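dude i think i finally got it to work??
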Amino acid sequence: MEMKRVEGGVCAARGFVANGLNCGLNPDKEKHDLALIYSETPCQAAAVYTTNKVKGAPILVTKSNLTKSGNIARAVIANSKNANTGNADGEEKAYRMCELAAQELGIQPEEVIVASTGVIGLPLPIEPIENSIHALAQGLSAEHHGDAAYAIMTTDTVRKEVAVQYEVGGCVCTVGGMAKGSGMIHPNMATTLNFVTTDVAISSELIQKALSEIVKITYNCLSVDGDTSTNDMVSIMANGLAGNPEITEENEAYECFKSALYEVLMNMTRMLAKDGEGATKLIECTCAGAPDLDTAITVAKSVICSPLVKCMMFGEDANSGRILCAIGYAKADFDINKVDIDLASKAGTVAVGRNGTNIAFSEELAAKVLAEDEIMVNIDMHQGDVSAKAWGCDLTYDYVKINGDYRS
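look at this
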């Protein structure tokens, strides 16, 4: 299947519009803090949520809405600056956000997905949202996808948008998305809000299955700092406007859709890792030659989650024993004596471990490899034919600075 990247983020697919603005939750008037996405036709919808036992009010309301609507959605409303979590009136205000969006769009509140991100434990002021919802809806446009992506950013330094197109059965299909996340990111699911849209016609059962499977090998393989947040969500809406026969079974069309969804979520996962709070380097760990997928994922995640490995990357010090150590305490069954380790970047590749032991290597080449801003840790277990990737970033002084005064 030929696939190409296209512009447009959540508005790349037919029938979707979006907008974002500053409603006053963020005192910085230059920073958007309220986003809206809308489909001109009803969508099959699916979502995956944080595994934290403490769940933000918007997650509880979104779950309830999708249950009531039979997994049909038309819109997403999301705010930044305030997570609306841990508050007695949280669900009431989250549902009020759905009502406000529904009134402006002429749909039902249960057809709205709601999300919030920001400081946990502070009451969410609803008045700024009430006062701005009309202007937000009036400004909906396919060209405003970037404004929506900007509105969900917190400590992010860049917008995160990806969209791809492919053709199947003579129909051009599009999958696009936007994401936010920089800190408080750790498997499974993190302080990330991720909204995906597509014009593919697909059943609600299969869109949920595809989303859950792809999240397992993308977002659930992402870690910045070891903290799993309370508000994490990946949602997807499919409006069917591509005109393809509805995908109701796991056939070639379904595999094509999954491939496109993987491309979008994988690239947004990389963006989230690279934009980790204070980060200077993206770390991508590939574990190949594993006996099964869970082992490959577990080992790769163990490496990118290691604080010592993260510090090693920041310091550009090829202390490969830290990588071997992180592999060794991974909670999986394998023979460490068969494991090889390489470090790689666009500056080259250096072998640092063979057969479960460290080996002599060129410190000069290793320094060049680690000086780049994207570092690959390549592990070959030589115990099977399954591989998986995990993504993270280095741990820097700026991470502490950012989180030392996060509420301000």
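The longest strand covers residues 34-49.
im so relieved honestly
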